[in-house]
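WARN retry 2 of 3 for item q-0093 after timeout on previous attempt; input resubmitted unchanged.
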Amino acid sequence: MQLDIAAVRAAAACCSKPEAFRPSYGTAGFRAEASLLPSTMFRCGMLIGIKAISCGQACGVMVTASHNPEQDNGLKLVEASGEMLEQAWEAHATQLAQAQTEEQLLQALAALAETLQPAGSPGRVILGRDTRPSGADLA
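OK item q-0093 returned
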């Protein structure tokens, strides 16, 4: 699968990662103070989009942190089956979220895309969110 690197570069420019922020994907997805998450949301959107194209099905991103303080939020990636993101892809999520520079992000996305083939049918990304005040901005 090939990425339109120029388009990804242009889109990524709006979502720089805070320098000291080192998110890590776990069973609960990503969790942090909501103002730190826009770059992670963008990167998760790119990842789940690649996954959806490669499987030809709907995959999802859920913005939620229902059991955390209101100023926090979180992101969960969802497989086409509705299950949690498969473990092999959790490492990709963490790698993309932690990329320090735009170039590192683009290289990681391109390397992942090169290992995959588009499915015969188009994929889709479904976005869900909770009602926290930060949910609308992240979505």
